[in-house]
């Protein structure tokens, strides 16, 4: 197909919502929100391309996939740029949280070993986190 699934969805939605008197590209002129309000439609949302979805799941939703190894191009092609940007940001954020988690675990172990909450690592950890 020459279009990504997200492009096909955007084109269909545009054709449904474009006014019928548009000279360049006449559409259906539907106000989808009104149709939902009038109970003519329950909701409108795109259906999944099952084959593409399964392929993306096999590549993306594996236990051994690290946050920085996400197939961003395939996510963008399937869901769109905004959602791919969100998952890219989330992977980046999760990756950098690993360092804080390791520092927190070391500080916790120091507290347990010293049997106190005033370990010498607490101020260092607080400075690192701040």
TrEMBL record:
GO cellular component: membrane
Protein's UniProt keywords contain Membrane: yes
TM ranges: 83-113
Domain Anoctamin transmembrane: 75-129
GO molecular function, one term: chloride channel activity
Main localisation: membrane
The keyword Signal is annotated on this UniProt entry: no
Subcellular location: Membrane
Entries under Pfam families matching the protein: Anoctamin
Keywords: Membrane, Transmembrane, Transmembrane helix
Domain of life of the source: Eukaryota
Membrane topology of this protein: Multi-pass membrane protein
PANTHER family referenced in this protein's UniProt entry, alphabetically: ANOCTAMIN
Protein name: Anoctamin transmembrane domain-containing protein
Species this chain originates from: Rhizochromulina marina
